[in-house]
Amino acid sequence: MTSANKASIPDQVTLQRILKRGVSEIIVESEFVRLMHSGTSLRLKMGFDPSRPDILLGHVVGLRKLRQLQELGHQVILIVGDWTAQIGDPSGQSATRPVLTHEEVVDNAQSYMEQFFKVIDRERTQVVWQSEWFGKFSLADVIRLTGRFTIAQFLERDDFARRFQAHRPIAITELLYPLLQAYDSVAITSDIEFGGTDQKFNLLVGREMQGMMDQRPQQCFLMPILVGTDGSQKMSKSLGNYIGVDEPPSTMFGKVMSLPDTLVMDYFRYLTDVPDVELEEISRALDDSSVNPMEFKKRLAEDITAQFHSPQEGQNARSNFERVVQGRQAPTDEDQYVQVPVIAGTSTSDVVRLAFPESSRSQLKRLISEGAVEVDGAKITEEIGHKPGQTIKLGRRRFIKTIEAS
């Protein structure tokens, strides 16, 4: 048991797991280790941008690290970026974020936290809103913050430097974002801030600002960027290469199964508790092709699905995958079907677009030409008119049931 201001001192095995697994860099590692050995409960800062309501597996890499430290008795401070939601922060995307209304921020924050606490211990988490301190800021306060850093310092940030050299615009508001994120660390007296490697500059600004304001500079805990299902780019909803923590079990399982083989070990290391010794064995087996990678993927997909749903749901998702995808049978679970209300004669393309809005007519034509569209178990060679009560299979994993339009 730990008191409100005490934490357990990790043994060497636990400490090494914290330091090395799912970690890119700790600034400064020696100081972080000293804090771990102090037995003092530390304040762990995690901020989030409420412009999107969903948590992806890419976010979970850092959340798992927070949970490890919570289990030792450390305190998570979750900062809702309701104030900086009004300011663009490209974070390597070279595009500003949209300004949100207060209602949108609140709705997104609520959705985010429901997912956040699937990983993080709610009892050891303090939720704070930036507006608690920035709501009281005057123009003079903002100007005093800007006087602590130079434009030259901020142009060291990779994204700003590239855009400046390419003569692409950089809004003044974007330069303010790192200052405001840094002040968050001051406002909550952060001991350790967590973020992806793409946030390194912002975390270091926070560390430097704390020193300027006579606080102990925070440690910066940087996690690797998780590559998405496309195998090439950072996981992102806008790129469509994401796996969301709130997705149905079968969807989550199927998306993990779609990963390129080259990503399997990263996902095991960053997103599971499979022991390092076993991971070494899996890695060797993958390297020498002694085992079909499909078996490891199914273990990985079941593990991840179980974390966000339940062990039983993980097993069910695996059984369903083996039945539907590998066995090419229809799913037994009604949740696997997207229900679409139709009237007699509704075209195949209209049914598909209602079920999967992101689909295009050209994609449907390609699937039909490849013999990958079935209606009630029979392949179709062209679009047809549909009626309620039909089952449509698209490719290997998507299923639609047409129902009576009300």
Architecture blueprint of SSEs:
Layout lengths: L11 H9 L4 E3 L1 H10 L4 E6 L8 H14 L4 E6 L21 H15 L8 E5 L1 H4 L4 H8 L4 H4 L3 H8 L6 H17 L3 E5 L3 H13 L6 E5 L25 H9 L6 H8 L4 H13 L4 H16 L2 H16 L10 E6 L3 E2 H8 L5 H9 L3 E3 L2 E2 L5 E2 L4 E4 L3 E7 L2
Helix pairs in contact: 9-10, 11-14, 11-15, 12-14, 14-15
Number of strands: 13
Helix/strand/pairing category: alpha/beta
The name of the CATH architecture of the largest domain is: 3-Layer(aba) Sandwich
The CATH topology name of the largest domain reads: Rossmann fold
Question: Portion of residues in helices?
Answer: 40-55%
The fourth-level CATH homologous superfamily of the largest domain is: HUPs
Q: Based on CA inertia axes, which overall geometry fits?
A: globular
Mean pLDDT: 87
CA radius of gyration: 24 Å
Pattern of helices and strands? HEHEHEHEHHHHHEHEHHHHHEEHHEEEEE
Q: Which class of the largest domain in CATH terms?
A: Alpha Beta
Write out the strand line-up for the largest beta sheet, numbering strands in chain order: 1-6-5-2-3-4
Q: Largest sheet, if any?
A: 6 strands, mixed
Distance between the termini: 58 Å
Our estimate of the beta-strand percent is 5-15%
**Total tally of structural domains:** 3
How large is the count of helical segments? 17
Unreliable residue stretches: 88-96
Structure, explained:
- This protein is an alpha/beta fold.
- It has 3 domains: 12-223, HUPs (Rossmann fold, 3-Layer(aba) Sandwich), CATH 3.40.50.620; 249-326, Orthogonal Bundle (Tyrosyl-Transfer RNA Synthetase), CATH 1.10.240; 334-404, Structural Genomics Hypothetical 15.5 Kd Protein In mrcA-pckA Intergenic Region, Chain A (Roll), CATH 3.10.290.10.
- Helix content is 45%, strand content 14%.
- The chain has helices at 12-20, 29-38, 57-70, 102-116, 131-134, 139-146, 151-154, 158-165, 172-188, 200-212, 249-257, 264-271, 276-288, 293-308, 311-326, 348-355, 361-369, and strands at 25-27, 43-48, 75-80, 125-129, 192-196, 219-223, 337-342, 346-347, 373-375, 378-379, 385-386, 391-394, 398-404.
- Helix 11 (249-257) packs across helix 15 (311-326) and helix 12 runs parallel beside helix 14 (293-308).
- Mean pLDDT is 87; it is low at 88-96.
